[in-house]
């Protein structure tokens, strides 16, 4: 047992994609801690590295062209049941580095200890197998249950995620389910082995608003009921607002800001986070104000800007931002931001709470 | 306000095969089922609804991509459905469309210059030099570097591509633009750029928009009035601020409460109206009120009688038996 | 209270007063495209260059063309010159491939045979483009009844074996002074555009639902423009792959027909004829069949390697 109540700690994770045009630094020295029994939201646009980070954790990066170049993914060794692989000493005592596990050991981690929910449930379900077969498969494969037990548990899981007549629906094929129902099945499947961590990669992006609401409500309910930690990846700040305990904002393969959910929305510590919030209209806005967009496009990761990756699009960019990349500095309790505006000599910026 | 576009009792059914791979059994998918509305010159009319509500079909029928099954579309006192092919092509240049997916809506084998120039090329407008000049001007209008005319679409980012699509739509000086989910495929930080640009263009060029989207917050922001559609029918119409404050139709209420708000203090406490079940098939819609199968206040009468779109005062229309 | 922050700066850089002032705005940079221009074709060429076999195939085909055009010209012998004193010579410096039963230089005849093979290939490719692409494109674009009728015609033609067509044509044109090569061309013409029509139809069916095709409609583009300017150029990848795989099959068919005596006949030299003649003397003079057979093999391999390479290079799913 490690003392820190940490379930997973990603440390200096670096994943590159080697393409003919050059090396894409998809994830660059990413460090993130996932406490036990918590929900972490990762927010970022396309190309921010949020999905690649999670695929790296699962070691599902297609190679070539992708390669995990360095770093560690420490996972609670007691939970994995791999006492012989645990660190004996140091800050990561009692943790197991997933990146150094042999392939067959990693296979036992996937699904059993880390469940995954994908964006498009249709792609991740096999169209020619019944839902029942697909649901019981991983439980049986991980040796957690016999066929009969697995079947019973699958029915329970389907009922838990709100599928009516689960007993009968077990014999149906994926195409007989609607989009929202398929996503519920995916959630049930991800939870069937009671994993310690569930990674949900844009779980509601391909769904309609009312179905999205159903799924988010379901996830909130499950969060209260189950002990799993959840990492929810989204491009939308409003989706994680209602469910996450901690939110991480990613951009160009690195964390720009990390904070407790209330802190992040009330006193954002990075111009990018502020920009994201101002650039979307709010349904509860009283009158129609002009949106404040973030100018420009996300950077080309083949030739990222020197210095702060956000500087070319940043309203408040200073000379130093163009020269070197700011470090991720602590600006409050559990609140880190990667911005030079927090430096004591930096000018004050309206609406920006400066600490440090 | 002068009416620029009038849609009356529009129906669009698609014939689909429901007999499986070996049998032919045709049925009609009622994508749009008796829809009527008007758009005033210079206004932005929002059309919201979820998958299968027929919003895209309405837009595509207006610009002439689909022939309506029944009903009329009147544009500036001209019945579009009765026009000859040639006449239709001419009118169409005033009625343009912006597409959803900026990755699919530009021909990957054509340069950006050729893409924007094409409408002028088709209608033989101006000399080659004049057209080049206009392409440069259009690129500047949408905030792109005019030197990039010889680049191919894949070299641009999503937001830039969408602006190329807008430039193409503007090439013929249109009056009416159907924007079919123009921002839903874009990154969050880019969406506001495009929305602001659409607002500016409307101001400067006097455009009228039919803004189709599923994002209620964005529709509320950009539209003057909003139509809410469900399963091929319009269930509610109102000024966009009013519809948020006083939604009348149970579906509109559910839709509004489903939209997440980027504020944890509100979001963590929020009591949502969560709709039960799934969208019924548009091939076989429920009898009476289409929404009744998922409606929290449905009564037996909803299955028997179809509610009419009634005016509740000052243009607030709603189709529900239990709203008064 | 939070842990105190330590600011680390890059080595050798000491921030001064000027570091923390707003940087000058450069709005032009935001819309600048950084990458160098790439097109679909330059990308495809780059990818096919990495495929060694495809490159080898490409150069063999080029060599084949050069030999077909110039080979018979520079050769001191003609393909029909008989030299009855030097029949059945083994390969020597004068006759690198030896001579046949009438003393004709086998190398010149093989080189001449490549002309016929390539002519067949070119006719096949041309018909593929002219008939196959247009036919498939029209069928898919207009769809519905048009598609039904056009595709049933293709099905019917598919049902007739090439061999039957050639035999019928041979009977029909017997003693009419028509070169047997024409029979082969007509037969290939009738059958070899069919797979192309089907492939193009499939491509266009999916392409015509894409938004750029709809966009072309909304700007008032007429049908032929949408089909030939927007849809077919986007199906060019599969079209080219199909051509490179159809051509060797047509060449092989000609060789086969000539081999069984239904194609060109002596003294005209086609690889099929040469192989057929050579087979008769295979026990005593195996080189006579060896060289034409090698030529056929090499051509088949070259086209198929190139075709496979093109398929990988032009497949949009493999683009990164």
From TrEMBL, chain A:
<dbReference type="InterPro" id="IPR003439">
    <property type="entry name" value="ABC_transporter-like_ATP-bd"/>
</dbReference>
<dbReference type="InterPro" id="IPR017871">
    <property type="entry name" value="ABC_transporter-like_CS"/>
</dbReference>
<dbReference type="GO" id="GO:0016887">
    <property type="term" value="F:ATP hydrolysis activity"/>
</dbReference>
<keyword id="KW-0472">Membrane</keyword>
<feature type="domain" description="ABC transporter">
    <location>
        <begin position="8"/>
        <end position="277"/>
    </location>
</feature>
<protein>
    <submittedName>
        <fullName>ABC transporter ATP-binding protein</fullName>
    </submittedName>
</protein>
<dbReference type="InterPro" id="IPR013563">
    <property type="entry name" value="Oligopep_ABC_C"/>
</dbReference>
<dbReference type="InterPro" id="IPR027417">
    <property type="entry name" value="P-loop_NTPase"/>
</dbReference>
<dbReference type="GO" id="GO:0005886">
    <property type="term" value="C:plasma membrane"/>
</dbReference>
<keyword id="KW-1003">Cell membrane</keyword>
<dbReference type="Pfam" id="PF00005">
    <property type="entry name" value="ABC_tran"/>
</dbReference>
<keyword id="KW-0547">Nucleotide-binding</keyword>
<dbReference type="Pfam" id="PF08352">
    <property type="entry name" value="oligo_HPY"/>
</dbReference>
<keyword id="KW-0813">Transport</keyword>
<dbReference type="InterPro" id="IPR050388">
    <property type="entry name" value="ABC_Ni/Peptide_Import"/>
</dbReference>
Automatic annotation (TrEMBL), chain B:
<dbReference type="InterPro" id="IPR003439">
    <property type="entry name" value="ABC_transporter-like_ATP-bd"/>
</dbReference>
<dbReference type="InterPro" id="IPR050319">
    <property type="entry name" value="ABC_transp_ATP-bind"/>
</dbReference>
<comment type="similarity">
    <text>Belongs to the ABC transporter superfamily.</text>
</comment>
<protein>
    <submittedName>
        <fullName>Dipeptide ABC transporter ATP-binding protein</fullName>
    </submittedName>
</protein>
<dbReference type="GO" id="GO:0015833">
    <property type="term" value="P:peptide transport"/>
</dbReference>
<dbReference type="GO" id="GO:0005524">
    <property type="term" value="F:ATP binding"/>
</dbReference>
<dbReference type="InterPro" id="IPR003593">
    <property type="entry name" value="AAA+_ATPase"/>
</dbReference>
<dbReference type="InterPro" id="IPR013563">
    <property type="entry name" value="Oligopep_ABC_C"/>
</dbReference>
<keyword id="KW-0813">Transport</keyword>
<dbReference type="GO" id="GO:0055085">
    <property type="term" value="P:transmembrane transport"/>
</dbReference>
<dbReference type="InterPro" id="IPR027417">
    <property type="entry name" value="P-loop_NTPase"/>
</dbReference>
<dbReference type="Pfam" id="PF08352">
    <property type="entry name" value="oligo_HPY"/>
</dbReference>
<feature type="domain" description="ABC transporter">
    <location>
        <begin position="5"/>
        <end position="256"/>
    </location>
</feature>
<dbReference type="GO" id="GO:0016887">
    <property type="term" value="F:ATP hydrolysis activity"/>
</dbReference>
<dbReference type="InterPro" id="IPR017871">
    <property type="entry name" value="ABC_transporter-like_CS"/>
</dbReference>
Automatic annotation (TrEMBL), chain C:
<keyword id="KW-1133">Transmembrane helix</keyword>
<dbReference type="InterPro" id="IPR035906">
    <property type="entry name" value="MetI-like_sf"/>
</dbReference>
<keyword id="KW-0472">Membrane</keyword>
<dbReference type="Pfam" id="PF00528">
    <property type="entry name" value="BPD_transp_1"/>
</dbReference>
<keyword id="KW-1003">Cell membrane</keyword>
<feature type="transmembrane region" description="Helical">
    <location>
        <begin position="154"/>
        <end position="173"/>
    </location>
</feature>
<dbReference type="GO" id="GO:0055085">
    <property type="term" value="P:transmembrane transport"/>
</dbReference>
<dbReference type="InterPro" id="IPR000515">
    <property type="entry name" value="MetI-like"/>
</dbReference>
<comment type="similarity">
    <text>Belongs to the binding-protein-dependent transport system permease family.</text>
</comment>
<feature type="transmembrane region" description="Helical">
    <location>
        <begin position="257"/>
        <end position="275"/>
    </location>
</feature>
<feature type="transmembrane region" description="Helical">
    <location>
        <begin position="116"/>
        <end position="142"/>
    </location>
</feature>
<keyword id="KW-0812">Transmembrane</keyword>
<feature type="transmembrane region" description="Helical">
    <location>
        <begin position="179"/>
        <end position="200"/>
    </location>
</feature>
<feature type="domain" description="ABC transmembrane type-1">
    <location>
        <begin position="114"/>
        <end position="307"/>
    </location>
</feature>
<protein>
    <submittedName>
        <fullName>ABC transporter permease</fullName>
    </submittedName>
</protein>
């Amino acid at each position: 047992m490690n003392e820190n109540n940490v379930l997973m700690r990603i440390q200096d994770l670096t994943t590159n994609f080697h393409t003919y045009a050059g090396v894409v630094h998809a994830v660059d020295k990413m460090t993130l801690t996932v406490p036990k029994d918590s929900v972490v939201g990762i927010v970022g646009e396309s190309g921010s590295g949020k999905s690649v980070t999670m695929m790296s954790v699962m070691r599902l990066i297609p190679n070539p062209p992708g390669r995990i170049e360095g770093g560690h993914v420490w996972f609670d060794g007691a939970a994995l049941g791999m006492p012989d692989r645990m660190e004996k000493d140091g800050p990561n005592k009692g943790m197991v580095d997933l990146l150094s596990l042999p392939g067959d050991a990693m296979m036992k981690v996937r699904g059993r200890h880390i469940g995954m929910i994908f964006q498009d449930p249709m792609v991740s379900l096999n169209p020619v197998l019944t839902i029942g077969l697909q649901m019981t498969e991983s439980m049986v494969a991980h040796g957690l249950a016999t066929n009969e037990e697995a079947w019973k548990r699958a029915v329970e899981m389907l009922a838990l995620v709100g599928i009516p007549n689960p007993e009968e629906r077990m014999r149906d094929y994926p195409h007989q389910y609607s989009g929202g129902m398929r996503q519920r099945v995916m959630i049930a499947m991800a939870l069937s082995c009671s994993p310690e961590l569930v990674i949900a990669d844009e779980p509601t992006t391909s769904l309609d608003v009312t179905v999205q609401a159903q799924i988010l409500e379901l996830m909130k309910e499950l969060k209260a009921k189950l002990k799993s930690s959840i990492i929810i990846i989204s491009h939308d700040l409003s989706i994680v607002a209602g469910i996450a305990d901690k939110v991480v904002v990613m951009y160009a393969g690195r964390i720009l800001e990390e904070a407790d959910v209330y802190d992040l929305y009330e006193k954002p510590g990075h111009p990018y986070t502020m920009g994201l919030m101002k650039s979307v209209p709010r349904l509860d806005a009283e009158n129609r104000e002009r949106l404040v967009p973030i100018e420009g496009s996300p950077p080309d990761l083949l030739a990222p800007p020197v210095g702060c990756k956000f500087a070319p699009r940043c309203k408040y960019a200073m000379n130093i931002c163009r020269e070197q990349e700011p470090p991720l500095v602590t600006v409050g309790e559990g609140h880190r931001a990667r911005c030079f505006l927090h430096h004591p000599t930096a000018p004050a910026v309206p609406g920006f709470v400066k600490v440090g | 306000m002068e009416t620029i576009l009038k849609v009356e009792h529009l129906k669009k059914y698609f014939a689909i095969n429901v007999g499986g791979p070996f049998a032919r059994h045709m049925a009609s998918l009622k994508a749009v089922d008796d829809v009527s509305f008007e758009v005033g010159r210079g206004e932005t009319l929002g059309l919201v609804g979820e998958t299968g509500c027929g919003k895209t079909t309405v837009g595509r029928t207006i610009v002439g991509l689909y022939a309506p099954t029944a009903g009329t579309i009147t544009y500036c006192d001209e019945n579009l459905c009765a026009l000859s092919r040639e006449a239709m092509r001419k009118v169409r240049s005033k009625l343009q469309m912006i597409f959803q997916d900026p990755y699919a809506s530009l021909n990957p084998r054509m340069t950006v210059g050729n893409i924007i120039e094409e409408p002028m090329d088709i209608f033989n407008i101006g000399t080659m030099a004049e057209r080049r000049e206009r392409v440069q001007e259009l690129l500047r209008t949408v905030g792109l570097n005019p030197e990039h005319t010889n680049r191919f679409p894949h070299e641009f980012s999503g937001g830039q591509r969408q602006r190329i699509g807008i430039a193409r739509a503007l090439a013929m000086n249109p009056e009416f633009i159907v924007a079919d989910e123009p921002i839903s495929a874009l990154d969050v930080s880019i969406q506001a750029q495009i929305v602001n640009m659409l607002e500016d263009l409307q101001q400067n060029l006097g455009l009228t928009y039919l803004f189709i989207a599923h994002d209620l917050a964005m529709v509320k922001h950009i539209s003057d009035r909003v139509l809410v559609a469900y399963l091929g029918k319009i269930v509610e119409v109102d000024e966009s601020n009013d519809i948020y404050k006083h939604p009348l139709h149970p579906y509109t209420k559910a839709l509004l409460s489903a939209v997440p708000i980027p504020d944890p203090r509100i979001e963590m406490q929020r009591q949502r109206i969560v709709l039960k079940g799934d969208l019924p098939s548009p091939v076989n819609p429920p009898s009476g009120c289409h929404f009744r199968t998922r409606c929290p206040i449905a009564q037996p009468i909803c299955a028997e009688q179809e509610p009419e779109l009634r005016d509740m005062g000052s243009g607030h229309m709603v189709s529900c038996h239990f709203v008064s | 209270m939070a842990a105190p922050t330590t600011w680390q700066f890059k080595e050798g850089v000491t921030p001064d007063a000027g570091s923390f002032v707003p940087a000058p705005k450069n709005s032009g940079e935001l819309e600048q495209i950084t990458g160098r221009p790439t097109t679909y074709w330059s990308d495809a060429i780059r990818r096919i260059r990495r495929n060694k076999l495809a490159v080898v195939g490409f150069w063999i085909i080029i060599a084949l063309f050069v030999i077909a055009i110039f080979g018979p010209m520079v050769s001191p012998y003609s393909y029909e010159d008989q030299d009855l004193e030097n029949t059945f010579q083994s390969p020597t410096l004068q006759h690198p491939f030896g001579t046949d039963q009438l003393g004709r230089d086998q190398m010149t005849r093989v080189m001449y045979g490549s002309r016929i093979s390539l002519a067949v290939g070119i006719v096949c490719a041309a018909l593929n483009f002219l008939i196959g692409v247009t036919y498939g494109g029209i069928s898919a674009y207009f769809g519905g009844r048009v598609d039904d009728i056009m595709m049933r015609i293709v099905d019917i033609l598919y049902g007739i074996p090439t061999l039957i067509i050639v035999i019928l044509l041979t009977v029909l044109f017997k003693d009419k002074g028509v070169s047997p090569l024409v029979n082969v061309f007509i037969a290939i013409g009738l059958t070899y555009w069919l797979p192309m029509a089907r492939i193009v139809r499939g491509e266009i069916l999916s392409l015509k639902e894409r938004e750029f095709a709809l966009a072309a409609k909304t700007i008032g583009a007429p049908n032929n423009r949408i089909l030939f300017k927007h849809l077919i150029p986007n199906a060019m990848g599969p079209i080219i792959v199909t051509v490179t795989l159809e051509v060797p099959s047509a060449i092989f068919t000609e060789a086969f027909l000539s081999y069984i005596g239904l194609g060109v006949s002596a003294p005209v030299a086609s690889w099929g004829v040469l192989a057929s003649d050579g087979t008769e003397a295979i026990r005593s003079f195996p080189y006579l069949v060896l060289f034409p057979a090698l030529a056929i093999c090499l051509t088949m391999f070259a086209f198929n390697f190139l075709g496979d390479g093109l398929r990988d290079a032009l497949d949009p799913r493999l683009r990164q």
